[in-house]
Amino acid sequence: MTAIGRVVRQLASRRLFAAGAALGSSAVLGLNSAQLEAPAPARPLASASLEPPVPPRLLAPTAASLERLLDDDRRLCRLTGPGSTSARSSDAKAEFEEAGHSLIHGRRGQGGWETWDIWLDAEGHQTVAIIRFGDRLCGHRGIVHGGATAATCDELFGWTAHHCGPGKPTRIFTANLSVNYKLPIAAGSNVVVRTSLARVEGRKLYLESSAESPDGLTVYATATSLFIVAATSPELDADEEAAKSAGVSGLSRIF
User: Fold this and answer.
1) Residue 79 CB: number of other CB atoms within 10 A?
2) pTM of this prediction?
């Protein structure tokens, strides 16, 4: 072998070695990168997060057809509106009859909250409501006031907290309400509000909702809320009864 041949052979050998070393380094680096990018094992939450079975999301082109689907779903119990005959719906009807003082239920009917139909999925910790907003709930002409949307979400949070919360709490109060407005709601529209109890931490109930069209293609608003179940004890109950008898508020010690 000539001197030139030996030089060429040595250079080729060195290049092969360098390529092998680089390949080995890449493989090692790739393994370390994969290990670093692997998700950390899930840590248990301190709160009592609710993980209900996820039912099919019922959608329909119109409110009337969606109403029929909701009525036909055996997982759901209709709380308000035509055909509501369960014990829970009887309780809801009684609440309505005594709710003339209520911002919403005292203004149900033509021009106000014209439709207020609610279905409960107790196992799924959620409610579905069909709400029709009348033309007396507007800010700008023909557009539902944002406050009416917020009040609707807040009221349905209360219904969901009561019917889905541990022990069906009745003395529950809004501590936080956050509404994100996506699109305006036209007066006379039927809006579907889906509300769920997301998790429970002691006396704190965390809820979520969305207001959308019956077909689910348009989202008007989303909202979250924190409700507090009032502290109870024989002493507090006695204080509240005494306050009611005196005609003053006995709710100063809720939190």
Assistant:
1) 23
2) 0.68
